[in-house]
Q: What sequence folds into this?
């Protein structure tokens, strides 16, 4: 165990460029870590916080080197199973190297040996509150925080957020209602326009049919009845009298020719 500080010192003195496998990608960018698998199709690199696979077609070249993961694995063999200080130091070193997963593993080793170790607890996100260690998630309600929309906040912040969301929802509802009203008005206008166009077309057809019937002599020309305007030439049958007056001509009042372009008075 006495060799551990010396090994850590040697690791820190190694140039950064030699501390990883460098996978240079086509175009731009590199992946630094330890290559854990390399096939004809893909190259898989453990970067400490996770594993990334890239197609071989995207790899320009690979420069092999010793990685922090290699050093971590070597250092774990130098720490005794009951060495709290050694695992704590290794956790701190792994965290400095960006090996978050490995750092957590080292600190968990510490807690397995010393459950109340403050440095390991804090490194793993625990909070000391009211004489006990709580996870960060557990600490929020214990400190009076409330969760709103997936976030922890004070009650005042939560109330303000609710008011803002309610106002935003009301504004959105008003916008949608206005859009719907505009849509309904546009539809009504289109329907009215179609109805007017249909009525005009029907009137045109009736006028054409009337002119055609008049030109063929099937309809008498209307008679001018003075102040009553133009009317029929024949009276219709009188209901209940038995008298068929349909084809009987009526006495036409004397009238003068009227200019078709003027409205009779």
A:
């Amino acid at each position: 165990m006495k060799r551990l500080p010396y090994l850590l010192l040697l690791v820190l003195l190694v140039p950064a460029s030699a501390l990883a496998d460098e996978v240079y990608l086509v175009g731009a960018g590199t992946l630094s870590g330890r290559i854990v698998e390399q096939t004809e199709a893909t190259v898989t690199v453990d970067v400490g916080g996770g594993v990334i696979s890239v197609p071989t077609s995207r790899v320009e070249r690979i420069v092999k080197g010793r990685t922090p993961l290699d050093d971590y694995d070597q250092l774990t063999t130098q720490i005794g199973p009951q060495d709290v200080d050694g695992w704590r130091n290794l956790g701190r070193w792994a965290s400095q190297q960006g090996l978050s997963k490995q750092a957590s593993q080292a600190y968990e080793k510490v807690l397995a040996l010393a459950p109340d170790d403050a440095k390991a607890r804090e490194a793993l996100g625990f909070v000391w509150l009211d004489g006990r260690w709580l996870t960060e998630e557990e600490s929020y309600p214990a400190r009076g925080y409330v969760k709103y929309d997936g976030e922890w906040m004070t009650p005042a912040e939560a109330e303000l957020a609710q008011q803002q969301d309610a106002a935003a929802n009301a504004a959105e509802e008003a916008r949608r209602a206005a859009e719907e009203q505009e849509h309904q008005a546009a539809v009504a206008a289109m329907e009215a326009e179609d109805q007017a166009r249909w009525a005009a077309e029907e009137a045109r057809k009736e006028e054409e049919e009337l002119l055609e019937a008049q030109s063929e002599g099937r309809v008498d020309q209307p008679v001018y009845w003075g102040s009553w305007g133009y009317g029929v030439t024949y009276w219709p049958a009188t209901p209940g009298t038995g008298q068929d007056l349909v084809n009987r001509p009526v006495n036409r009042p004397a009238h003068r020719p009227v200019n078709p372009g003027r409205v009779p008075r």
